[in-house]
Amino acid sequence: MNQQGVQFGKVAVLMGGRSGEREVSLMSGQGVLAALRARGVDAHAFDPAERPMDDLKREGFARCFIALHGRFGEDGTVQGALELLGIPYTGSGVMASSMAIDKVMTKRVWHAEGLPAPRHVLLRRGEFTAEEVDAIPGKLGLPLIVKPAREGSSLGVTKVKSTDQIQSAVAAAIALDTDVLCEQFIAGDEVTCPVLGEGAGATALPVIHIVAPDGEYDYQNKYFTDVTEYRVPCDLPAGEEAAVQALVVDAYRVLGCRGWGRVDVMIDGATRQPYLLEVNTSPGMTSHSLVPMAAKAAGTSYEDLCLELLANATLDYSPTAGGAQ
Fold this sequence. Notes:
Elements: H1 3-8, E1 10-14, H2 22-38, E2 42-46, H3 55-58, E3 63-66, H4 77-85, H5 94-101, H6 103-112, E4 120-124, H7 130-134, H8 136-140, E5 144-148, E6 158-160, H9 166-174, E7 179-184, E8 188-196, E9 203-204, E10 208-211, H10 219-223, E11 229-231, H11 240-254, E12 260-268, E13 274-280, H12 290-297, H13 302-311
Parallel strand pairs: 1-2, 1-3
Antiparallel strand pairs: 4-7, 5-6, 5-7, 8-9, 8-10, 8-12, 10-11, 12-13
Helix pairs in contact: 2-13
């Protein structure tokens, strides 16, 4: 084991979990685990769906690399448990994680801060009528996007192209979440940009231009096919990449994110105005994932990226702050 591995102590790579993204999380976690071990870190797989979290304390883990995606992993719940256990972890803290997983809450914060995001209508399970659903295309235009408010990896997402599709799209999303987000569709370029660091020190990695078949960047095309094209360095017009990078850093900071994240953006093809879609606070780390791709374009290997993220593991509340513990 090298000296860097020693300083981290015993490390748990949290993977799997109970969300709809369990399969992707296991792929991310295995990649991170192999990378950390290759760099001499005493890293071990830990699946919170199969073991109680307090095993982490009992077994002497000093840090956690969170490779969980979606609910019960990316939404502040695991972060809160680790705060109680006093074990530093990668990524955003409790509040930023819980806000960022909720696409509606994220939009409210961004709009309050004057940051651009598509118009939307929120539907809550049991609180809307069929007539209200039918009226949504008139408010947002067609096509429009329907998605669960708190799912990731494009689960439950439908691109509604005609009015007769809206009811089934809402039904598919409401099956996965109590809140459904109906969102204005922005026709143009789909891009994403990872951010590393915290506060004034947060910096953007290169922007990736995503070109999916027929514009359908769905769950299958994200993880299990090779038909989606990722252009990095991106092919945006001069000055646009820098503008997107500045916007995503602002979006990341106002939510209070730290460690790392990835912000998804649509650029209007006619006006070239970028619109913020969402921020992922525990992005994928699979062979198809975008943060490692952007890091590689910036000269950072997958292994070095994992090591850097682990080095920045921290807590919202220091065990010694305010006399705690």
